[in-house]
């Protein structure tokens, strides 16, 4: 069995229990390592599900279920705690791991639950902290090399940061102008003096409406009520729609370009062979004789 | 008339009624087979329409119409039953057909309706079973070779399963984080102590909101009520929109690549030159000598 | 002035008033013809606006405005009637025009309004007939050659009719299955026996919900109320979204291919020149001397 | 330090305070100029935020906060006023600047606020005028050359103005026909004579619904209530969706084409060979003799 460790400086040098444990926990190249990752993935999903289900009103009003939930959560916390201890045990320089990004995430993914489990009062703030264990999903995916796909995407986004800044500026300006315009149009009091009952109560509210509308989400909690407001918002919707298809088209073009480059590199001949007799190039890769003069290549 | 049967092992070997029936029912190459397919397509559509219309409240409160519906349904069931019997009759190995995927689908597309029609009480669960006859539409389309289009799509999806897994993971994480965040922001009690009346009653509910919002469906049954919630959700909408245009762009790029490959294959020389000595093909268009054996072409 | 008539068989042969009138009304090549088209375009828009504004409740409750509207409508009807008479007068074979598609559209674009204007009671059905004058906009655009853009689109759609049929079949099946599923999930009576108050009152209603949801319109008039319904509909939304981006990607690919073909034809060298001395080809288009041997081409 | 002024005719000729000030305020090539731009950007954002926040009901009912807001606004107005004075001071021809587009925008971005600040009653109309200072964001972005991205977009849009006109015409016709159709379908009184309570109260209202629906915004303030209306609107949604993906695909194709052209230009040989005799460039890479004069390269 030959392992290519991802962080060779952390792998124990001497073969034995620690090195085997390291290969299983930190690497994903052999069946035991893969099984560990899948198990961890399921445990993370399960514990996140518990965090979410706990907030359901039908659960919170039932003391029995709350207790059960707390117990399952405690089991997950002990599980993650054991995993944390094992990670410290099998790395060559434990402190380096403890203060690394993933080390901190690993710690806070079980510590609050353990504290709550052993008597500390349940606090709402803990829920957000506990949700951060979700980030560990990415570490496992990273091990599986699936992240190389994400890297391509990240590179594409980074290459087009100039366009993104311009686009966000245009969207912010469009949102602000639309919001200001609709606020004034919808808030004009009616002819008979009764005040407007419009949902466009302020410019920030109208800007929220503009974002919701321009992205075609369209909740419908704030809608124009006056004829003028409806005409203007129909025009704004068409304009906003035109604006918002621009990034879609741009992302398509970037992906198409990335796809074409990849295809181009794959089809390029590795080296061009030239006929020694007539200097013709452009031979097929499998050619044995020159296609122009028949000389053996 | 020359038939290229799709499943030659099932076609009766001796010419006669059974073989003719087989060609009409299982193949779509001649006018009678096409007519049978179109008739079957209409019957499936009609019977599905009956299943759907039956559930309309204005129909269910009218006993006369319910009776009529049941009668039409029975006619369809008898029709499909006859078709099933004919399929068994004209295949060479009937049991092979009966236990095949399409055989089972064919059976359950008429059996529950027949049972209901002949006295068995109408049961809700039957509706789902009866709806499964819809799958038979695909068999007919398959016969018509339209499915080759779907095959291209399926191949594209299969080739990009890595990207899909990463993307679904990112969406799930984004949905969970957005949901947890909005649950906490919207559920904070107001300054005067009155409890929140927000629709974000639990994290699963907030995650449902996040899915509805990020796909720009935007029902509006759950919307943020606090200023902080509106600000955060406007930001999440813009982020979510950026996330959701990624697969659109990716699908576009894949289709563009498939289109280009198809065009490339179409523009290749239709007539391939073959070496008279060694039978090698794939010569360059300007080749004078065979690239494998050096013989003059 | 040289006119290339679009329908030469209808243009009067002898120069004179009729021929000049024909060139102005039926052609768009010179300034008078263009001015006539723009005027007609404005008149059509204006008359359609009148039809629409007439239905506003604030207009309908005010007898004075209704009268004014009717008068303006009558003026438009007389205008279109005059234009119709002029078209009959200046075509070579009037009956051929009268019974042509555009002739019938021209007639019904003013006849009902004239009847209403001269005493016939106002009928709702007339509104739809009157709206058909909108189609005349396309004739004017056709004259202006803008329609060649639309022709490219039409050709693209026609070339991919196979894909469209498959896609519509898949969408119909997805809508039917989603609708049936949600109808059963949402209509299950609660544990305490109270009947469901869900909006999913029937399968057709649920199918309407599925169409509204899968296209990301998301009105919010029908939304899932049960936890199971929300989970399933979140999954259906993600699936439906994946389904609905397929045609977007496909249209992008088709446009990209059309764009590339157009670019390819533009950049292709019209004819390749070969050097008479050394037989080298691949010369620049503006080359005067051979780039390999220096011989004058 | 070498400055390439953007408007050299406005830059003071003699080195000194005025020239330095000009370089800082009007140019963005050195650190001081960049710092000034970033500061101005923050001030514009902040002042726009003040305009928006001022309209919040919770702010408007609190006299203390209103006063504070007015004071901050006054500070911004004085800041922008000082900047305006400095711009006038350091340009070579001040009147040319004052009557230029940006000069007018600069003036109205602080004048109304100054007037309000020094006693003139607060007027609603001023809010729109004050919002126009947002346009100044674009001047700063222009200096930063980010706008070259926007130029590409602008060129793309201009090149496809023919397609845009046809598309807008088709959308307008589709909206009008859908609106008219739905108005008639939804407004038919029920069988028992009770009038319709539909939201489709008039054709303009129905056209507003059609815009909201076809762009997949889908507020849900106006929804079909009758079965016929739901069937027709489901069909219209699918048709409208097909219509609205066309510009998305088109924008994608245009971006892909622009991307490919850019890539094509990038892959061209960077070093161009020039004929020593006739100075002609644009030789083929394998050229041995000049294509224009036949001299050996």
From TrEMBL, chains A, B, C, D:
Its main location: membrane. One of its GO terms (molecular function) is voltage-gated potassium channel activity. GO terms for cellular component: voltage-gated potassium channel complex. Keywords: Ion channel, Ion transport, Membrane, Potassium, Potassium channel, Potassium transport, Transmembrane, Transmembrane helix, Transport, Voltage-gated channel. It is found in: Membrane. It comes from the Bacteria. Gene3D superfamilies: 1.10.287.70, Voltage-gated potassium channels. Chain C (1.20.120.350). Residues 34-261 form the Ion transport domain. GO terms for biological process: action potential. It is a multi-pass membrane protein. The chain crosses the membrane at residues 35-53, 65-85, 97-119, 164-185, 227-251. InterPro entries: Ion_trans_dom, VG_K_chnl, Volt_channel_dom_sf. PANTHER family: POTASSIUM VOLTAGE-GATED CHANNEL PROTEIN SHAB, VOLTAGE-GATED POTASSIUM CHANNEL. This is Cyclic nucleotide-gated potassium channel. It comes from Roseimaritima ulvae.
